[in-house]
Amino acid sequence: MKFGAGNPDVRVAVVGYGYWGSKHMRVLSSMPGVQVTIVDEDPERIAEARRSYPSAESTLHLNDVVEQVDAVVVATPPTTHAAVALQALRCGRHALVEKPLATTVEDAQEMVEAAAAGGVHLMAGHTFEYNAAVWKLKEIIDSGELGRILYIDAARLSLGKYQRDCNVIWDLAPHDISIASFLLDEVPRTTWVWAKRHVGNRHADVAYLRLDFERAVTHAFVHVSWLDPCKVRRVTVVGERKMAVYDDMSDNERVRVYDIGVDPTDPDDHGESHAMPVSYRTGDIVSPFIQFNEPLLVQDSHFVECIRTGARPNTPGERGLDIVRVLAATDVAEATGRPAFVAGSIDPSGADLMRGVAS
Ligand SMILES: NC(=O)c1ccc[n+]([C@@H]2O[C@H](COP(=O)([O-])OP(=O)(O)OC[C@H]3O[C@@H](n4cnc5c(N)ncnc54)[C@H](O)[C@@H]3O)[C@@H](O)[C@H]2O)c1
User: Fold this and answer.
1) Cis bond leading into 32, ω under 30°?
2) Which of 20, 59, 103, 302 to mutate to test the pocket of ligand 1 (most atoms within 8 A of CB)?
3) How far apart are CA 344 and CA 57, in angstroms?
4) pLDDT in tens, 264-323
5) Nearest alpha carbon, ligand 1 atom 19
6) Within 13 Å of residue 80, how many CA atoms lie on the same side as its CB?
């Protein structure tokens, strides 16, 4: 089939034309051969969509258009993801679902099963796994330049958009959990949580997580907040040899590699000696060139390409389910005040809870 504006070969409904759905609409409507329909249950949002995209079809209900499209992009609030996506998947439509894939493990599992049963793609909208700076960071880690990874630290802070239907962990931490899991090629096995609500009476607005990765024998600390005066979007990877920082707020030095480190002066010293316990190394700070494309455009182009070619998405529903499992474990950890195993991890007895990971 010939692709072109007058001859669309992929028809997509963007469900939820809010803050983020409008960005999906912008990138999808820029793609040759893609025809986009807007769905939002709020008439005011539909009126706004018609002003911005007068030639695009729009409607209040997915029912009206689900039979006429090939795929949906679900950009509604998290608690509605499962219902909207399942409606589309059960009609044999591909679905790209925003993070978090769902708000329960059971819902996420049902979505994965529905996609498999229907022979269609379910893709998780893990935008940062389509981000060239994150790819560069992974390339640096995999090259061994940093040495053994001691820990990862991630901060995602600002005076953020308080969500009605989830806490700050479910809203913001999917990004950092997916980044850390992508960088280390594994999903964390255990999570620890400190979270607190400071404003309103619904959900925690500030949280600190610790994620333990078994194979990599390391951990990630994640700080997420809707209540911080400074906008911070930063991932630091501390290696034994060097350290790397990905700062998403930087215009032209998103990734920096610091040739610095700390070594124990006497590895056999167990605290008795009065000598300085460590020595410091300092060297160059290097910022590699990164060819940058808008991650949402890269992600949505990949979704369209998977529809066209039948290729499996790089972030399939199973990947979204993995992250939902970690998020569900954060709920348990928050409620119990104890570390929680991620469902599907190897030893739920907790007998070897922290084996190999320095606490
Ligand atoms: N990947 C990212 O970086 C990123 C960034 C922001 C938001 N998000 C995700 O995008 C999703 C939307 O977030 P937002 O900030 O745009 O929210 P929003 O409240 O601004 O927009 C949600 C829209 O969905 C509509 N809606 C709700 N239920 C609906 C339904 N059943 N059918 C049709 N329309 C419905 C609402 O009327 C609203 O216009 C969330 O899942 C969020 O986690 C992702």
Assistant:
1) no
2) 20
3) 43
4) 887 676 666 677 788 999 999 999 999 989 999 999 999 999 999 999 999 999 999 999
5) 18
6) 12
* Interatomic CA distance for residues 359 and 339, integer angstroms: 12
Instruction: Name residue, tokens 């390339």.
Output: 139
Which residue has the CA at smallest separation from atom 39 of ligand 1? 18
Residue whose Cα lies nearest atom 11 of ligand 1: it is 75
Quote the CATH superfamily of domain 129-295+325-341: Dihydrodipicolinate Reductase; domain 2 (3.30.360.10)
* Sheet with 71-74: strands ordered across: 57-59, 34-39, 10-15, 71-74, 94-98, 122-125
Distance 197 CA to ligand 1 centre (A): 22
- Cβ < 6 A, ligand 1 pocket: 15-21, 39-42, 45, 75-78, 80, 84, 98-99, 125, 127
DSSP state of 223: E
Specify the CATH number for 10-125; select among 3.40.50.720, 1.20.1740.10, 3.90.1510.10, 1.10.150.120.
3.40.50.720
